[in-house]
Write a structure and sequence with these properties.
alpha+beta; 3-stranded antiparallel beta sheet; 17 strands; 19 helices; 561 residues
Length: 561
């Protein structure tokens, strides 16, 4: 049977349509927490390279089964009517058109629960699914278990040519999954726009006759006004300046304070190249002390939520989405989630660049080139089927793709005079729907530059292509945020210079060092410790293993020169 043509969004669209916890982990911090020991990967085997039989239409016949688990679907997910996690529009299409029986063994709807369940499976020696999405922090531990296969040869045999070309152009993409010269997984590539954008209540600015801040000093004036001058005009003293998360870390991925650190110099939990050519750990740089002092000042003045240290990324957003905070700093897709997802009126929100520090510096944590990898059980027999699936599902979609316009006509789009309409009232998609969540490979995409499209739409260009039409229907704050992200990405994004596997000392002491750091920083912001406690932390960090970690990180770095 020939593949049915159901047209889907181009890459640039889907990148913000559904925000999931996958992107939630897209910060560059993935080298401090050990993720476990790194013992030799005994027992790992190479992927089988036999081709599964297909019929004249290219379907696998008999059908092949691929099992997996997911952090994107759960019992709490709102599914299209009649669909479930295991039987839905996507699984039926894949089976009918490709001869692949895609089975989700279990699913949860947040990253923390997903990783906990994964680690329990590994520790309990449970049977692994055929394919598993694994975060950078856990990749080394999982590969070292000996339960996942080397895919080096299978990649060369079956991977799409456009994917091969991407990895050939940047061989460092393999670094997380490479061991002893072999590749024990497929790094995940995405086209997400994830640098920090400052979202502000424009109506609050207008009510107080204020302009959007461009510097940290100007931001402080706005924070004071939003906290003390009744910006929502309800006659109550019930607002704060900015929503920040602090439960895990301050320089996080959304509801983040990372822009404050970037305004003064170095970023916590990232390694950077120092003037002497060595890699040094950002968290012990004196500029971090200055940024912590500024955050402590803001906390003391009431600009921040008093429960800052208990708020994770999702909880921290509530003060903004519920109208109690005037500023939210997060990825460009934030107008979709958490704002629209919480029922917020996004029309009162405007997107602005993050502010600069006293020396003109600005920056936020850049997403790593790849934050996850697909690992394959050593018992998996169908690498050819996986790569055939990936080739069809991987963005950007060509015009003849069955997924050029959307997941399914009538579900998330209709065609009117040959053009897709994505907001028709008769569409069957539930709230917060996205095809990505149902896919084995989520939002896997060949990275591309969409900046011109965003600029053209903001300038009034008539949208023609499906991705242009979709983007033109976004809230204006979201479109502006994507344009800002694309424009400032190179200058703003602060990359982690250490991209290697956890070193021996990191594997042993990384968790302890990170706990020491995060607890000290939060206590300084809470004014429970004086600012000079930072200096004591630096001394303790070095003595507790930090100096040795630095030595090992630079040994790795020297091998890359």
């Amino acid at each position: 049977m020939a593949i049915k043509k159901r047209k889907v969004l181009n890459a640039a669209i889907v990148l913000g349509t559904v925000v999931s916890m996958l992107v939630a982990c897209s910060s560059g911090n993935n080298n401090v927490n050990s993720g476990g020991a790194t013992q030799p990967a005994e027992g790992n085997t190479a992927a089988p390279t036999e081709t599964s039989p297909t019929n004249s239409d290219g379907k696998f016949d008999p059908p092949v089964t691929i099992t997996t688990v997911t952090p994107h679907l759960s019992a709490d997910t709102k599914y299209p009517e009649g669909d479930t996690m295991t039987d839905n529009f996507h699984s039926r299409w894949v089976k009918e058109n490709l001869g692949i029986d895609l089975k989700f063994l279990w699913g949860v709807s947040n990253t923390e629960a997903y990783q906990t369940k994964q680690k329990l499976m590994l520790a309990g020696n449970e049977e692994m699914p055929d394919i598993m999405l694994v975060h950078n922090e856990l990749i080394s531990e999982f590969i070292s278990s000996g339960r996942f296969m080397d895919i080096t040869e299978a990649f060369e045999m079956y991977a799409p040519e456009r994917l091969k070309a991407t990895f050939e152009n940047d061989p460092d993409l393999w670094v997380r999954v490479r061991k002893d010269g072999k590749n024990y997984g497929l790094p995940v590539l995405t086209n997400m726009e994830t640098n920090a954008i400052m979202f502000m209540r424009q109506d609050w600015l207008d009510n107080l006759n204020l302009k959007a801040p461009t510097t940290i000093d100007e931001l402080e004036q706005v924070l004071d006004a939003f906290t003390n001058q009744d910006p929502d005009q309800n006659g109550k003293n019930d607002t704060i300046g900015i929503s920040l998360a602090g439960k895990d870390k301050l320089a996080t991925w959304t509801a983040t304070a990372d822009f404050v650190f970037g305004a003064y110099g170095k970023m916590p939990e990232l390694w950077y190249k120092a003037e002497d050519g060595t890699l040094q750990y950002g968290s012990i740089n004196p500029s971090v002390k200055t940024a912590l002092g500024k955050l402590a000042e803001w906390f003391n003045k009431g600009y921040l939520d008093k429960a800052l240290g208990t708020l994770d990324n999702t909880k921290a957003a509530e003060s903004f989405t519920q109208g109690k905070s005037g500023i939210y700093v997060g990825p460009s897709y934030s107008p979709n989630w958490p704002m629209k997802g919480a029922g917020m009126d996004v029309s009162v929100v405007e997107a602005y660049p993050i502010p600069k520090g006293p020396e003109g510096l600005f920056g936020s944590t850049a997403a790593a080139k790849t934050n996850h990898a697909y690992l394959f059980s050593k018992d998996f027999q169908h690498m050819d089927a996986f790569f055939k699936y990936l080739d069809i599902m991987m963005r950007p979609y060509a015009e003849d793709s069955p997924f050029y316009y959307g997941a399914e006509e009538g579900l998330d789009y209709i065609l009117v005079d040959g053009k897709p309409v994505y907001d028709a009232p008769e569409l069957k998609k539930p709230d917060s729907f996205g095809m990505n969540d149902y896919m084995l490979t989520f939002n896997y995409a060949i990275p591309q530059d969409n900046s011109q499209m965003y600029d053209d739409l903001l300038a009034g260009k008539e949208p023609v292509l499906p991705n242009e039409i979709m983007a033109s229907q976004w809230p204006l704050a979201r479109l502006k945020a994507y344009a800002l992200d694309a424009k400032n990405k190179a200058a703003q994004g602060m990359q982690n210079a250490f991209q290697g596997q956890p070193t021996k000392t990191l594997a042993q002491k990384g968790e302890l060092l990170l706990k020491m750091e995060r607890e000290t920083f939060l206590k300084i912001v809470y004014n429970e410790l004086p600012l000079d406690a930072f200096d004591k932390f630096v001394e303790d960090w070095k003595k507790a293993g930090g100096d040795q970690v630095t030595t090992e990180v630079n040994e790795w770095y020297n091998t890359t020169k």
